[in-house]
Records
---
Amino acid sequence: MVVTAPPPRLQHLDAGWRSRLEPLLAAGRAAGADLVEVFLERIDHIGVLAEQDGITSVSPAFGMGAGLRVFRGLRDGFVSTNDLSQAGLMAALEQALGMLGLELSSAGASGFEGLPDLRDHGRAKGDWLQRCPGLPEATGRLLEGTRRLEQVGRHLQVRRGSYARDWQEVLVAASDGTFARDVRLHQSLGLSVLAADGEHRASIGRRYGSSGRPDQLREWDVDASAREVCESAGTMLYADYVEAGQMPAVLANRFGGVIFHEACGHLLETTQVERGTTPFADKVGEAIAHEAVTAIDEGVSDGAFGSLSMDDEGMEPQHTVLIENGVLQRFLSDRAGELRTGHARTGSGRRQSHGFAAASRMRNTYIAAGPHTPEELIASVDRGLYCKSMGGGSVGPTGQFNFSVEEGYLIENGRLTRPVKGATLIGEAKDVMPRISMCANDLELAAGFCGSVSGSVNVTVGQPHIKVDTITVGGR
Amino acid sequence: MTPTTATTSAGTAPASGTATAAGLDAPALRETLERLAASHGIRQWDLGASCSTDVSVQVDRGEAKQMKGAQRSAITVRVWNSEGLVGVTSTSDLSDTGLETALAGARAASAFGNPDDTPAFSPLATAPLPELQQPLRPERPILQLLDTLKDAERQLLDRHPAIGTVPYNGLAQRLSERIYLNSAGACRQQRLSTASLYLYARAEETGRKPRSAGAVRMAYGVDDLDVAGCIDEAAERTISHLDYGPIDTGRYTCVFTPEAFLDLIGAFSSLFNARAVLDGVSLSGRNAIGQPLAVPFLSIHDNGLHPGNVGAPAFDGEGTPTRRLALVEGGVLRHFLHSEATARAFGVEPTGHAGMGAKVSVSPDWFEVGPTPGSGGGQQGLDHGAAGQSDGPGLVVIDSLSALHAGVKASQGSFSLPFDGWLVRGGEARSIEAATVAGDIRQLLNAIVGFEGEATITPDGLCPHVWVEDLSITGDA
């Protein structure tokens, strides 16, 4: 592999790349491609870990790369490279064309008329990186967090604070006239503890994330976070394991939204339609959920972890109503999804990095607020499970979903009683959606990471408190 | 085909970087690092570098779904400052400018190095490396991969009318190279070709829920892949789940397939991980070596060098040679997995399980699980195919576990995991509709009844079927 850095004037991704990208796009079109897309990326990352009362890891990383995608008919070829020289990019194009049986040719007419003016979503974001906390400030804030844990927690064997700052500059150019640039800034910070007392153990963590907010770490409420983590750890340390069975469940707001993300959201991505792995493929206009459920995916909430000024295919994100009063409205779609399924693009083409082809992915996904109070939901359950805090989850190729409950409580006679741990909720998407029968009025979002076909991307999940009439609770 | 001709950039003259059309150029990397380090007054450094070319295809009902290629490069540089503290920086930019920026970044980060846990060069970074039989196989054209995968998909679809799609599939080949260098003269280099195939089928019968299962194969080249075996296994597993039924919630004797048991051991590998022990997040304490952990007939070794471990690393992120290590013998914890720093803390040698970083991670390579020689190996003659009283609760075979990232609490020892499997009654096996298995890893390791059959090679290790009694199963009934 030849590794050649681009000339210094091209180290920044801006309109200066036009003269290098236009010949590439024209060559691809002249070779017979329907569409050629180039995704350029520059990254600057810092990760910091604090353990107990010391900084134990500082991990900076930087780099550049390109992803080239070529479409012909319904097929596409994708090549990624770290070699951003003109020869390197042309070699990547040649390889992508070869995947579709096409060859570079000097004879063919491209029909490509050049790139328009750059749509620069990053223009006002030029100082974001400089405005972020430097290492002295970031390490200081994390140590403040781990010290606060020590002050407010009990039986803490391990105290950790983590911070990640991901800055990304992207440039997207395509032979259909797409030419757009953006700068993204994602920061996430977390506190976690392991509490131990004899044979009792509880590990609890919380993560907070934002996009486009350089001051997030400075504005972080350390005390509130430390208290939330320690209170949960203190409760769960002596909790019994949950008794398994079928029962109603009330899921708290914020990260409780992982149930919709896993049980339904993934199945409304056109990648799932393409694979034939969603039971909802032909259900647009039909009821797939209880009439209490309205669900939204959008990329526009200010500062939310899944928000974007443009997706990774250069399209501005939309506010997409997925389900309205239980009726399926539309799917999340990217360029390939639109091509192969007919569902119009929604600004949902996302990828972890230049190493992945974009795919239809969720952004900020949540169930809309309903008319009830959280207390009304709990009062409606004779015996069930209250899931205050969720762990991760997943969905399989047949629509079976699962997710773990980090902090749970029994509901007995309409009231929360003792804490329980070790619960895993499982079910089928098309079965559980009609069972979400009550939504409360306290919608909140929570930051997370979602791993799927185009890698790990920042998302938010969210919901108000919701009630599921019955669900399988795995336990001991 | 040699690595020289296996790159997509072949024919382009090497430029100012230290990776070339033939792969990584270790002498050039060393020369550049030495020059740049000297100019910045850096006297101690080490570096891990890798590059690879990847090609992969996916198909969908006879058509190409996605074809991908990738050229990747990455380095991680560590620098020791004048106070002996370590900083690190990673980049994908292997140009001279990139290396210089990385060195400067690492030196800046070293100001935040941890004085209580500073890595050093591994004392084994120049020790002889094991000889691995890892043939470099020729790279095949992507359209040949496409034809191979289309044919495999067609054969799998033809196996049963209920198999309608193979929604997750892929055939990939990779040529990779990695290097470890340090300022004390260590120089490690390894080149490798690998290929992989996975087929995950989805089947559905009228009025019934869709079912799915799959198989994976790895080899040193595409021509070496056991394509027929992968098709057979994916078909058999998928078809075996078509006839399904609910299972009653309760406690069962369970039989873990090799894949499932190795997944579980891997998820709880912090039991054997010295880094986790020192960090206080392992269930094992510092003095746990020599203490009983499991039934007295269980052995677990880590052996990255096993011939079945396709793509075995010859050395770890610190240049320490890979070796076979006894973790559990006769049910007793024998050794931890170590990096240089953890080994120093325990007063032992590094074991070849380190990553690279300011705080060095430790991870297992490839497990060997089975009976301890001379121990009797627990109950003899176990055969789940013939087991299970027709009027009893039956025997649960756990074929594959899901959602380990969410359902395992390694620092607590607990797990609650969805699984695919079968309920065996009177010798008859029926697929379980949906269920979870839950328990505590230490209780499970002490509730092993015995082993069934010969150990099988899987991508994660070598293991026979493992019988465990009294596990909690929750059915979706």
Note: The radius of gyration of chain B is 25 Å.
---
Amino acid sequence: MSEILVSFRDVTKSYDGRVPVVAALNLDVHRGEFLTLLGPSGSGKTTTLMMLAGFEDPSSGSIALEGTRIDTVPPHRRGIGVVFQNYALFPHMTVAQNLAFPLSIRRLPKAEIAARIARALEMVRLPAFGDRKPSQLSGGQQQRVALARALIFEPKLVLLDEPLGALDKQLREELQAEIRHIHARLGVTMVYVTHDQAEALTLSDRIAIFHEGRIQQIDTPEAVYERPANPFVAGFIGESNRLTVQVVDTTRLRLEDGSLLATLPHALPPGTAALVSIRPERVVIGAQGPGNAVVEEVVYLGDHCRLRLAHAGRADFIAKLPRQDAMAVPTPGTRITIGIPADAVTVFPAG
Amino acid sequence: MRRTNWLAALLIAPLLLLILGSFLVPVGLTLFRAVQDREVAQALPETSAILAAWDGQGLPPEAAFAAVARELGAALEARRIGDVAQRMNFARTGMRSTLLRTARAAERLRAPYAASLVALDARWGQAETWLLLRSAGGPVTSLYLLRAMDFTQTPDGGVVQAPTDERLYRTLFLRTFGISLLVTAICVLLAYPVAYTIARLRAPWSSIALTLVLIPFWSSVLVRTTAWFVLLQREGPVNGALLGMGLLEAPAQVIGTRIAVVLALVHVLLPFAILPMHSVMTRLDATYLRAAASLGANGMQRFLRVWLPLSLPGVLAGGAMVFLLAVGMYTAPALVGGDRDQMVAWFIANFLNRDVNWGMAAALSAYLLAMTGAIVALARILTGGMVGARG
């Protein structure tokens, strides 16, 4: 799992020679992993993918595949499968002809091509669709064919550029499951670009979070969610309450209203300003009665209730109340007591 | 629902009437002239009636001689003799002088007319002359349509090849379609790389390049073709440059040759090939090329297997446009071509302007229309399998 397949070394990409789209990128992709490049639009994630595919040239730095530099190799000799957001199936060819394309380029024997097409269509559960034209397929079917086409020549690496971006939610979830199964079954390395954090958490072995051309954090989904490396990651992945605080000592912080907040030990010097991030679902809702928070708004979401609270001098403190116990949902205006476990508080230096 | 249809029909009615009135009706009437035959029946009604009843054996009765003498004289008075003479002379060369001579002598002729007419002109003693007159009695004739394909009708109604020195039109059609196909092929080959380059240019440059393609449209075909005349003439700059460089020993005669015609046509028609190709290519998603590259296709394979088939509808549209325009081209060949380089349009114009022979002009037009339609339909059928792809 830890064998390195792809490595980016000090890769910078700039279109105008001044503003870098990707800045001093160092990234290793492990063999067999599912790595997601996640970030808002313009964060450099797609540019990174396109440099790996060969459609963009790095301004400086190097990219290696299995230890061999590939940044000067033209895309058609890199042997990397690519799935595009708009599917990019050739409209003048049938599904089978699309699948045959990379194989006939590689001059495989006809019988071998036919066998592989049959297997590939079976894999994406479209066995009877070989003679259809892409225009006769739905969006989800087209993307399954595109996935099969990117896999059929057995590349070591498959790149997926927001492949599910054009599909509706239900189809997207269905295809996520399918991609996960295919990845597990074939063991092929996949690098996936998306701006949808839920998709990234669902699919990935590791997630690289991009912002302003740099990787903010690269780790497992659980780690980036539970232990965000900086305020950007904390804010981008999932929901979080962000509060400005004063450091009292290694385990205590003072909130804006003067109350104290306990944390796990941290290394910030006492007296300095800091930023904390608290996940809404980690907030413990206590008993009603005199307490440290006032319920401002309640939103019923089925599996949980979302409470907007006035707490610690803020009116936008969010807490999530799971619907597992018989506890009554507090009504707006009620005073309640909330508790914040020390391990639910992530502390960052301010600024 | 029905009300909406009725309203829609009402809204497009003016357009339909305009098309009908300004296009279909005139074209139909013109094409009808290819078979219409009324000059003789109008000018010589009695003669036509007598000849229609005649059995065609030997010579017609004396009444026919008398009628033709009288009616020719009357036609001369009424200034209608020209039409008849033109019509009959087209059927048989020499008939013009016979008819005019008879018309002028009509007053002096005395019965028996069978004798006095033959004395005036021996043609009246030949059965062929009378058979020709009878077959010109109308109201329709196949004379023009046959002649436009180098056939002619014998006096007894059979169809034979026209005399060798009158055969002309089959060669003319072959030449017209040959030149047009050559021009189409050259235009497509030249336009494709141009359209491709423009389609791949970045933002400001692509529209600048497209404007350069369109600039020739700002001047008339006449001006552009005349420019070729200036360039290519014996004392023109092209000859001057070639002589100056020592590539030629004597000035080349290009004007009046097939080369000049093809050159001028390609120049005039090239934008019509570039524009449809460009419009198809700019709408082609460059992701297809990236996808092909990621699947292992090199530059040539990407072009041949992805870009070319996807841009083919533009090639066909551009080619069809150039071919259709070339087939009907008049100005360019007329200006820079020689006598042996003229195309059908030039002959149609000549029949209209010089010979005032509407029948031949209409017959040539009808064939041109039919053949062009057939070629375009054939091209559509042949390429249908390739281009019929949905999406």
Note: The two ends of chain B are 31 Å apart (CA to CA).
